[in-house]
Amino acid sequence: MRTKIAFVTERCTGCGGAPVCRVYCPCGALRLVDDIDHFPFKRMQVDPVLCTGCGSCVARGPNGSRIFGCPWDAIRLTAVQEAVGE
Ligand code: SF4
Ligand code: SF4
Question: Considering only 2-6, 11-15, 37-41, which range has the smallest mean pLDDT?
């Protein structure tokens, strides 16, 4: 059972329609959607069903180190909410 899930913060720029983060997700859980607050820009969204919480899309590693993932540090991991049906 997964214990964490990814979420996208307000730092997401949508990468001009060419999101870097998506290549790091092995589950196809990252989707580019319309940013309704900043039309016509877009932002990334995590599919909570597909995300396994693997952390491959997250740029922040242990002790604040930088690792691969979103170059804008816009994706974080959070404790999974059991309410999503697990
Ligand atoms: S999460 Fe990061 S890499 Fe992905 S679209 Fe947003 S800014 Fe770009
Ligand atoms: S934590 Fe893993 S499965 Fe979830 S969105 Fe990021 S790369 Fe994809």
Answer: 37-41
Mean pLDDT of the chain: 89
Question: Structural domains in the chain?
Answer: 4-84 (3.30.70)
- The pTM for the full model equals 0.86
Q: Are 32 and 20 in contact (CB under 8 A)?
A: no
- DSSP character string of 45-82: EE-TTT-----TT--B-GGG-B-SS-TT--EEEEEPPG
Q: Which of 11, 38, 44, 73 to mutate to test the pocket of ligand 1 (most atoms within 8 A of CB)?
A: 44
Within 13 Å, how many C-alpha atoms sit on residue 73's CB side?
Answer: 6
Ligand 1 neighbours, Cβ below 6 Å, are 8, 12-15, 19-21, 44, 70, 72, 74-75
